[in-house]
Amino acid sequence: MKLEQYTYADVILPLPLANLYTYSIPEGTPLLTQGVRVAVAVKSKVYTGLIYSLHNQKPRAYETKPILAVLDEKPLVSPIQLKFWEWISNYYHAFFGDVYRCALPSGLKIESETTLSLKTPGSPTPASIMDNSHFSAPPPLEGRENNSLLLNNTAGEGGAAGTAELTPKQWRIINALHDTKKPLTTGDLTRLIGAKDILKEIKILMEKGLVEISENIYQRYKAKTETYLRNLAPAEAIGNSHFSALLPFEGRGNNPLPFHNKTGEGGALVLSKKQSELLLYFIDNYGNNEVNKKDFLNHSNFTASVLKGLVDKGIIVSYEKEVSRLDFPETNRRKMYPLNSFQQKAYGEIQDFFSAKKTVLLHGVTASGKTEIYIHLIQEALNAKKQVLFLVPEIALTTQLTNRLHRVFGNKLGVYHSKFSDAERVEIWNNLLQNNGYEIIIGVRSSIFLPFSNLGLIIVDEEHENSYKQFDSAPRYHARNAAVMLAHLHGANTLLGTATPAIETYNNAIAGKYGLVELLQRHEEIALPQIITVDVGDLRKRKIMKGFFSPILLEKMQEALGKGEQIILFQNRRGYAPFLECSRCFDVPKCKNCDVTLTVHKAFNALTCHYCGYTKPVPLHCPSCGEETLETKGFGTEKIEEEIQALFPNAIVGRMDLDTTRTKKSYERIIQDFEQKRIDILVGTQMISKGLDFEHVSLVGILNADNLLNFPDFRAHERAFQLMLQVSGRAGRKNKQGMVIIQTTDPNNPIIQQVKENDYKAMFFAQMSERELFKYPPYYRLIYIVVRHRDLQILNSAAKILANELRKVFGARVLGPDNPIISRIQNLFIKRIVLKIEVNTPNEYAKNLIQNITEKILSIDRFKSLLIHWDVDPM
């Protein structure tokens, strides 16, 4: 079948644009296909576009630009991926370009770089000014009164066309470009000449015809290479290499190894004693096999200079070889553990549901052995020659799960998350694209965008976690829901696993949309932990408790440490203290960019905003009244760590929060130290609640349950139940029943009672009745329309007009505009409009209405600088 040569291509651009853009295909361009990357120009910049479709229809609205370069021989993105991107764009009201930008690893995007160079021909350089078309005499900077240059006319016929006066700063730019003999970016020039604000000078030099700018295109991803060595085999030496024969080493007095040159005309190549020894060592240990140069030098006693001598003489061949950045250490493989009777029953029910429902919820209590069921299902998919995607909500979870899965599946397993470098993520993408090795991918939410070709199973572990929701930038997708659609497009199965299902998921299961399998017994039938509530309000009133720890919690901690057992303390707030307060005037330091108090971080002696990163030193005096009366209020994980270390000086205390886990290896180090009992007490935020499995934890302390319950959000009680039950599940997972102590001022709160009784259904039905009454999910769909601007007056006016326009279409379904909990972030004021629509409303219809109204508002001159985004199914 002959492929048609098209003349136009519709291209997806990595920009927040509603439409595709059409580019012309230059003559001589290789045949293009959907999913191939191309370099295209948008105004003065170059972007990595993606071919969406090919045709011969010239656009009427604008003149097309040509495609600048084709970056791939084969498609980088499959038709299924593009369908998936379209669904995310439509469902989450995101621009197609935003989905593309989010989906493709940064390393697969080309970048353009504007550089400056002396204009050619006839560059104005101090050494060659006499010979160029611009100047009549070399004008040294030093000693000139006006630093002026006499310019020749453009015809080169002699005579002065005028005088060009250059400032010292402009001369330094000219000299820098001449001295480096290569184009420079404005950043390079700024550093070299030691001056800021040079754009004006560059513009003047361009107008005078002395310099020119160009746009360089380059790809960010480069394959990793390492140097390998190989001995020149005798057959090669005789047939086609440098030497005709290798003479034996033995018996020679000075240890030279003479070689005849390849023409056989005589002459001998003599090696030093060290070179001869290295060559014989190489032959004895590696023969004609290749070896990594670094490994060779590390495992032998020879220096790099001796090796270089043999390489220079052509006796040992040195060459670069592409290697993987993904270093998976070898480990002892093991077979899958057999399932117990409860697990086997659940496994069979899942298989039965897959034949009809395709999506199944596995509701299994903590420590019931869900992971072993996952492993058996993965093996079944691999036996059917299918790929598997295993989603986890946090990078912290990948450490333990990766080790467990790797012991069973070896290097069939790949890992994908944001702590990997761009190059590492590109390598995983390419390996999947080329079907090179990986059959299972374990990763966080962005893993749904990988180029699977034969997906058979998606497992979403801890499916209730709000970490699966993208909050900060478009597309604001939910990976759990997107995974169900991705599986549908591939004809694959989806398993959602958790001990505390999201209310929407459990509702889908009991309504029959998903299959429901329950696993209500812990592995080896270990009892669920004993949960004790402590009324800290009463203890403080009676002056029995002064610090952060109730007497019973301290007593049980002492008992656990005495038995060599481990403890987890949960406080869902990082830092040393939530804020500082002056005890005299009650002033509280706030962020200069956001409407939030600054969190105290004692380790850095700093006050930090957790929204914009603004940081300043902890003041000694109150900024308002000048008194030394500043006190910390509340407590975070850093303060808990300090207090516990003081109370139990012989215990080793660790901390697991965002501040201690910023690097790729930090998660692994903390988890490994705790697993191997190098940490006795682990203090942490919600990170420690997410499916981690620690054998020796007997006690969990929840230090402030009220923080979870008293949050102004309709999901607050659901999340509080999930967090408390999940962190409780870390206790007593092996051998014996654990204990959980919940500190609260409201022990009779229904949610706390439901946690004590492990009664998910009671929580579910109570929350469902409230949500039906107030029109919340799953009965209605929510869409937040968020408007931001630096000018509060403009923002208020725009938000009010936008809400009124929306009400003309959606009526009473529109609430607001109102102020969110934090109404200013990074100097942008924020207003929020809430839209509640029936679940059966066609999504495309609602999306088009909202976008049309938004575009109408943005077309008003004074509102053009507004920032508006939509958040569908917000968390």
Structure in a nutshell:
With 875 residues, the chain is α/β, with parallel strands linked by helices.
Shape, per Cα inertia axes = globular
**Portion in beta strands:** 15-25%
CATH homologous superfamily identity of the largest domain: P-loop containing nucleotide triphosphate hydrolases
Q: What's the CATH architecture name of the largest domain? A: 3-Layer(aba) Sandwich
Average residue-wise pLDDT: 84
CATH class of the largest domain: Alpha Beta
- Enumerate the spans where pLDDT stays under 50 for 5 or more consecutive residues: 122-163, 234-267
CATH level 3 topology of the largest domain: Rossmann fold
Question: What can you tell me about this protein's structure?
Answer:
- It is a single chain.
- By secondary structure, the protein is α/β, with parallel strands linked by helices.
- The protein folds into seven domains: 8-109, 3-Layer(aba) Sandwich (GIY-YIG endonuclease); 114-219, no CATH class; 225-282 and 299-322, no CATH class; 341-524, Rossmann fold (3-Layer(aba) Sandwich); 530-573 and 637-767, Rossmann fold (3-Layer(aba) Sandwich), CATH 3.40.50.300; 577-634, no CATH class; 780-872, Alpha-Beta Plaits (2-Layer Sandwich).
- The protein is 32% helix and 23% strand.
- It contains 25 helices and 37 strands.
- It has a seven-stranded parallel β-sheet with strand order 17-18-16-19-20-15-21, sandwiched between helices. It has a six-stranded parallel β-sheet with strand order 22-32-31-23-30-29, with helices on both faces. A five-stranded antiparallel β-sheet has the order 2-1-4-3-5.
- The protein starts with 7 loop residues before the first strand and ends with a strand.
- 38% of the residues are buried.
- Mean pLDDT is 84; it is low at 122-163 and 234-267.
